[in-house]
């Protein structure tokens, strides 16, 4: 298998993994372990791909994407690293020295690309205002998918075709001020993402539960699993009090209210 065919196959694998979260509905193909293993399969060395994917998966487990924040792209890094390991016979440990800088480069590309692709949203909004719904649909589904595919295919294809030295050279050419600025912007996006998530929790009647969960985690040092279990137990108790037999003491609050002439189910939903 020549270098061009190998680069083409690996590029197609990267596009397929990327489409998992865009068109396929999160089937877990967009994971370093799966992506690297698929690279090993198409290049005829699945065990090497699996080994590189397992090492990259351990690294990616410490990367959390909150809101609009963009973490290091370990999927892209693991795919390129697995390809080089399969083509050169390098070990998984050696391949990881390639995966990390590629993942950082993928992070920077992701930040820039998301800023560019936001223009499609404004084009779609204008099309909706003009009644051109097919055009708006194409902006989101067709054009956006093509651009995302190119974002993964182009760097993957040329990285395999031209070699690891090119990738490391591109990473080293990125000026420090640009890297620092992008890192600061990702931290701001993280804060913005948390604010968006909190805005969903701070609704009427929900703020108290958020505050209780914070106290349990901050002062009692309970884990996320413990706080979640307490939340589930509290939800079961409260639902039983509102809708169960204990609501009015006579076999169902909603059923008892329904027997009343003044009962309005819409008002019950607002409570």
Order of helices and strands: HHHHHHHHHHHH
Q: Tally the structural domains.
A: 2
Radius of gyration: 25 Å
Based on secondary structure, the structural category is: mainly alpha
How many separate helices?
12
The averaged pLDDT comes out at 77
User: Count the strands?
Assistant: 0
User: Separation of termini?
Assistant: 67 Å
Strand content: under 5%
Question: Helix proportion of residues, in percent?
Answer: over 70%
Low-pLDDT runs of 5+ residues are none
Biggest β-sheet strands, sense, barrel: none
Structural shape = globular
Tell me about this structure.
By secondary structure, the protein is mainly α. It folds into two domains: 3-198, no CATH class; 203-270, no CATH class. 78% of the residues lie in helices and 0% in strands. It has twelve helices and no strands. It has helices at 3-24, 32-42, 46-60, 74-88, 92-129, 133-162, 164-173, 176-201, 207-218, 224-243, 253-258, 265-270. Helix 4 packs parallel to helix 6. The longest helix is centred in the middle third of the chain and has 38 residues, at 92-129. The radius of gyration is 25 Å and the shape is globular. The chain starts with a helix and ends with a helix.
